[in-house]
Amino acid sequence: MTRALLLDAELNLSLGDRPPVEPADGDVVLDVAWAGICGSDLHVMATGAWVEDWPATLGHEVAGTVAVSRAPNVPVGTRVVVDSRIPCGACDGCARSARLCTAMAWVGERFPGGYADRLTIAATSVHVVPDGLDLAVAVLAEPLAVVTSALDRVHGDPRTVLLLGHGPIGALARTEIARRWPAVPVTVVEPAPTRAALAVRDGARTHADLTGVDEVFDLVVDAAGYPGSLTDALSRTASGGTVLLVALSGEPAEVVPADIVERSVTIVGSVGFDTAHLPRALAALAADPDRYAAVVTHRIPLADVPEFLARQRHRSAGKVLLRCGGAS
C-alpha cells in the first residue's frame, strides 16, 4: 500500500493507505522526498474543486527519486521533479502552447499526486535534477516555473515594482525579480508579520496595507488575490505600467475602463508554465540554491499536515514543504 494524505468527498483530510498505482509502459514510480503546499491545493481542500476521483491525494509540486522504471531513458535512481501539467494535446490552446490548454488538468486532481510516499507518473512528465542540487530545494522548481513564465510576460525592464502579497508565490516572485533586476527597488504589501519579515530580510520595503503607499509603480504584481486587489493594483500603477496577475481570485473586481485606457496600462494574466520553464527553474535553483531556499519557513512530516492545516498555521507561513517517505 501507498502511505498518503487522503482528502475525502466531505473534505476531511487524514493520513491513510491507498492502493499503489501500477506503472504502465513508459511510467516511473517515484520515492517522493518532498512536496510543496500550493495555494491551489488549499483551494481544493476547502472546496473540492477540480478533483476527478475520491478520495483525492493532492500534491503537484514534487521531487523524488525513481524507484521503479518502465521507461528505459529514466533509470532507477534518477532524481527528478514532476511536471504538474496534464494538457489535452488536442485543443486550439495546446496548438499554441500547452500552458493555454482549455482542458488543462493537474497532477493530484486527475490522478493521485505527491502527498504520499510514492507516486506513479509518466516518464515524460519528469525532469532530471542537476547534480548537487538538494531535492528540498529542487521541489521549488514547479512554483518557480510558474513565476518565471509570468515574469517573462512583462515587456521591458521596470524601474519600480510593487508586490501585493508575500505568500509562497509572492516570495518566489520577489526573489526572481531581484535576480532579474537587481537594481530595481521592490515594495511589498503583506499584512502577515512572518511573511513581511522575509521580504524585509532581503531588502524590500514593506507595508501592512496600501495606506502608506503613495507612489505609483511601473510593475504591480498581484500575488494576493484578495477582494479588490485588482482595483488596488490599478490604483498604484504608473502610466504605461503593467499589472501582472498571478493570484487565482474568483471575486468580481471594480474597474473603470477609462482609467486603463487613459493611462495606457497593460493588464497581464498568467497561469501555469511552458515546458521550457521547468529546466530554466532548475538551472536557477542550481546556480543559487540559498537565494530560493530562503522562502521556505516550514518543513513538516506528512503525518503532521492535517493538524498543521487545522490550526491555520499555513496562513502566516512562507513556503511549506512536506517531508514524504523518500526524504533523507
UniProtKB/TrEMBL annotation:
Could you list the residue ranges that cross the membrane? none
Query: Mind listing the UniProt keywords for this protein, alphabetically?
Result: Metal-binding, Oxidoreductase, Zinc
Against InterPro entries, the record matches this protein to:
ADH-like_N (IPR013154), Glu_dehyd_C (IPR031640), GroES-like_sf (IPR011032), NAD(P)-bd_dom_sf (IPR036291), Zn_alcohol_dh (IPR050129)
- Taken from the record, one Pfam family name reads Glu_dehyd_C
Q: Which residues form the Alcohol dehydrogenase-like N-terminal domain?
A: 25-131
GO MF, one annotated term: metal ion binding
List each copy of the Glucose dehydrogenase C-terminal domain by range.
137-307
Q: Which coenzymes or cofactors are required?
A: Zn(2+)
Specify the protein name. Answer: L-idonate 5-dehydrogenase/L-gulonate 5-dehydrogenase
The organism of origin for this protein: Kineococcus rhizosphaerae
